Amino acid sequence: MNHSANESKNNITPKVLSLVLIVACLWGGNAVAMKVALRDMPPFMLAGLRFALGVLIIWFWSKYKNIDVKINKQDVFSLIILSILFAAQICTFNLGTKYTTAGRSSVLININPFIIAILAHFFIPNDKLSIRKVIGFILASLGIYVVFRDKIKASEPHLLGDVIMLSSGFLFSILTIYTKKLMQRIGVYKILIWQMVFGLVPFFGLSLIFERSARYALTPELIIALLYQGGLVASVAFIIWTTLLSRYNASKISAFLFATPLFGIGSSALILHEAITIYLLAGALLVAVGIYVVNKSPNGLKQTVEL
């Protein structure tokens, strides 16, 4: 296939945009589902059960699609490193959500597009920072600030959770770049399944150490939240995101994740009955403009395949 055909194949089409927004929507509701689930189950055990369910769904899907997920011995070490980063990011996300609010979680976890863009500039070919990208990210971040302007003021009760959530956003950025590099030699489904399989060890191990006396309650709300997190976010969203990450520039598709907290506050309004204000509308406009600026280039919305 020639270069122009590759470019045509890898434009950000409406289909690609819709897939990224589906991921943003599912991830946006994740903090709300997490907050609901944490009422009845501690964070490490919740992470373990969530991704055990996710692994089963992805494994069955790979079997249905006849995708080989066996790993080579030389890839085991790299996948273990990936799973450690993965487990650390998920554990800090769960802990951060426990000690802060769902709204604040949605804001702070979304520092990752900035860090992804910076790391991609140094570690991923053809994914460099530009003035246009920086301006777009600034506009989008202003949109996030406007949306959550009454939720990101300093607040002592949430300080610990805020710091942990910022750490989670940083870890997610490193995880994204490392995943992108591994995709140069390891298939998407192998990465998805084995990062979760190896990650189950620290999830359940930490639960065994720190959550022996924790309170558990098998409620309908917990079951629904767990099915949402494991059946949709940990499987469907991860499959879509990792597949897109294997085909498109990490910094450009990550820009669309600025829409995640917008979906998050929408689900908070629907489930937790938070009010939708004028700040949401103004912030949404800034986010949309920021996304447009980041993805606008002299050649249209051309992408490059880096695998």
Task: Please outline the helices and strands.
Layout: H1 3-9, H2 14-28, H3 30-37, H4 43-64, H5 73-99, H6 102-108, H7 112-123, H8 131-147, H9 159-182, H10 188-210, H11 220-245, H12 250-255, H13 260-271, H14 278-295
Overview of this protein structure:
The protein is mainly α. It has one domain. It contains 14 helices and no strands. The relative contact order is 0.23.
- Measured by DSSP, the beta-strand proportion falls in under 5%
Model regions low in confidence, pLDDT < 50 over at least 5 residues:
1-9, 298-307
Shape assignment: globular
Query: Helix count?
Result: 14
Q: Write down the Rg.
A: 19 Å
Largest sheet: none
Distance between the termini: 14 Å
Helix content: over 70%
Structural class: mainly alpha
On the 0 to 100 scale, the average pLDDT is: 81
Q: Would you count the extended β strands for me?
A: 0
Keywords:
307 residues; mainly alpha; 14 helices; 73% helix; globular; disordered N terminus; disordered C terminus
Short description:
With 307 residues, the chain is an all-alpha fold. It has helices spanning 3-9, 14-28, 30-37, 43-64, 73-99, 102-108, 112-123, 131-147, 159-182, 188-210, 220-245, 250-255, 260-271, 278-295.
